[in-house]
Amino acid sequence: MRKDVKEATSFKNEDGFVSVNGVASDLNSRSRISSLLASSHRDFLLSPTGQQVKVSELKDKVIGLYFSANWYPPCRNFTQLLGGVYENLKSRGAAFEVVFVSSDEDSDAFENYRSSMPWLAIPFSDLEAKKSLNRRFEIEGIPCLVILQPNDNKEEATLHDGVELIYRYGVSAFPFTKVRLEELEKEEREKHETQTLANLLTNRNRDFLMGRPSAKQVKTSFSHAFTVISLTGLYLSREAWKSLEWLVRKKVLFSCVENHSMKLPSLLEYVTNSEIKVKENNKNEKYMKELLEPLEVPVSSLIGKTIGLFFSAQWCLPGVTFTPKLVSIYQKIKQTLDDYTNEDEDFEIVFVSSDRDQPSFDSYFGTMPWLAVPFGDPTSKILARHFDVRGIPCLVILGPDGKTLTKQGRNLINLYQENAYPFTDAKMVLLEKQMEEEAKSLPRSEYHAGHRHELTLVSEGTGGGPFICCDCNEQGSGWAYQCLECGYEVHPRCMRVVDRLRSSLER
Length: 507
Fold this sequence. Notes:
single chain, alpha+beta, five-stranded mixed beta sheet, 18 helices, about 20% strand, globular
C-alpha cells in the first residue's frame, strides 16, 4: 500500500513556462535537468557527505528522482534494495544518478534517512523545489522513482514506475529505455514459457533442497539413540538438546520415548534444565548431531509434483502467523493424497527465505515440515524477482509440469483451505460455483461478536472484492460480511453470530 502525498498548485508564468509554487521549469529547453533540480537561489545538490554537487554535473546521466520518507516502512525497505542496485551500477561506471526528494517531517528525520543513502539529495530546506517536483510528476504515493533520460525532453521518455522496474528487474533494468524494457519483457516471457523445476530451484553449485528426516526415519534412528542414552548416560550440548527438543515438540519422538526408560515429561524437564552438562568430543553426541542434520533432497525428486514456493521470513509477523495454518493445510493435503490417490500425485512446499541471518532461518525453518532453499543461496532472490514477489508472505503454486498455476496461493488457502488443491483453474471454477451455492443459504445480514454494527453479505458483484478479514487478518475475496457504515469485513466462516438484542446491549 502506498501513502498519499499532498500535491502543490501550478500555473504558467508570463514567459509561458510552467511554474510550480514559484519554481520555473522550461521543459522544452536543453537545460531540463537544471530547471527541474535547481532553483533561483540554489544550483547544487547534497552529496552523502554533505558536500555541494553542482546540478550541471548530472548532464548526460540517467537520473532517478526518488520520492520517499523515513517514516514509511515500504520506503525504508525499497531504499535498501535501490541502494544495492545503485552501488552495483556505479561500480560498473554506469552513467546513473539518484536524487532524493524528501517527504520527511523535519530536518532531523531527513538527515537520519539520508545517512543511509549513497546518492544525492535536494536540501530539506528547499521546500518549494520539492513541492514543484511532486506537482510536476503528479506524485500520488511513495515510494516513487521517476526515471529521466538524458537529452530527451519527450514526455514518453519519462518513466514513473521505477520502483516496479527495480523490484522486477533490478540492475538489468538499466538504462531504463523503451528498447531495454521490451527486451526484458521478452526474456521474461520466454523464461516463464520454458520454466521447469530444475531451472528454478537448482544452480551450478547445488541440485538439492534442504529437508527434514521423515517421522519413520527419525523414530527408527532415535530408537537406537535412546537406547544409547539409557545405557550410557549420554551428555549433550545445549545446541544438540535444543534440536532434540524441536523433535519432541513436533511429536516425532512420542512413540520411541515411551518405549524407553526416559518418559516424555522427564525428558522435557531434562531438555529445559538449565544445568545440562556439556561433555566435549563425545562420539555419541557426534552421532546425535549427524542424525539431526537436514537432509539433502534432490530437486529431481520433485518433478511431477504440485509445488508451493513459500516466500516468508521470521521477522515478518504475517508470515509467522500464516505458517501454522499452512502447516495444517499441507499435512491435510498430504494425508488425503496418501489415503485416496496413487503414488504419481503428490504435493510439496519449498520455503524461500528472506531471513536476515542463519539463526533466524534455522529457527523459522524448524517450525516447518517441508523443504527449503538453503539460507543465503542466490536462488532465493532470483525466485523473488522471477515471480515479482513484492511482499511476504507469498505462496506461488507450480503445476506438475513446473509451470506457474497461480501466485495467489495464500489467498486460495485462506478461502478454500485444503480443498484448494491442486490449485488448477478448473478446481477454482468448481470451488467458486460451490461458494455461490453455499452463499444462497447464508443470512443476508448478521451481527458479529467482534463488531457493533450490522454486517451485510456482499459479493464482488454487489460491492465486495479483495479484502483483509478484520477477524483473522488474512486475505479474502468473493463473498464477505461487510459493514456498510465503516467498511469492516470478515470471511463468512469467521462470523461469530450474536443476536440483535445482545449487540444493542453491548453498544
